[in-house]
Amino acid sequence: MSLNTTAVRIRVTLKDVKPEVMRRLVVPVTLRLDRLHLTLQEAFGWTNSHLFEFFAGEVRWGIPDPHNDYGHQPMDARKARLCDIVRETGAKTIHYLYDFGDSWDHVIKLEKWFENTTTEGLPFLLEAAGRCPPEDVGGAPGYAEYLAAISDPGHPEHEHMRLWGPERFDPNVVDRKALEAAVNALSDTWIPRRRATRTK
C-alpha cells in the first residue's frame, strides 16, 4: 500500500459455513472501522444487533465497554481506519467477529489496491454468494443443524425450525439487488454527492 492508495478490493468469507457465504466489495482505505462494520452488516444482510470486533494478529478494534466481561478492551474502532490496520500490523488478512455468542468469523482478504481513484460511490458491492444465516441461530454449528432440520421433513425439529427462521429460507439464494442498495445507501450518507451548480 502506497501513499497514493485510495481504495481496496476485499473478499469477505464467513468462516466454517457451508454453502459458502461470500461478499466482494471495494471500500476506501480511509474507511473508519466502525463504518466498515456497518458496510459488512449491510453487505451480508445482518441486523446489527450484536457486538463486533476486528482483529489482526494480537490487536483488536471494537467499541470499548468498561463493563465488558471478555477480559480485554479493544482499541476504539471509531478512531481507526482500514489503512491503520495495514500500516500497524502489515496484515493482508483481517478478521471481523460479529456476535460474541454465535462468533461469526468473517475472513477479510485484501485482494487489490487502487491508486489515485475517486472514493465517490464507495463502498460498493461487487459480488455476493450465499445467503446470510439467520441471526441467533447458534453460530456455524447451529446453522448446520438448522439447515439439516429445514431440508428434511422427517427431522424432529423440522417444523419448529421452519417456523422459527425466515420463510422459505434457501442458503443458495441471495437478494443481491437489495444488498447493493443497502451498501449504496451508506455511500450516500458518508460521502454526499456533489450538487450540480446552476449556470446563468
From TrEMBL:
Superkingdom of origin organism: Bacteria
Matching Pfam families: PRiA4_ORF3
N-terminal signal peptide: none
InterPro entries: MM3350-like_sf (IPR024047), Plasmid_pRiA4b_Orf3-like (IPR012912)
Residues in Plasmid pRiA4b Orf3-like domain copies: 7-177
Protein name in the entry: Plasmid pRiA4b ORF-3 family protein
Organism: Bradyrhizobium diversitatis
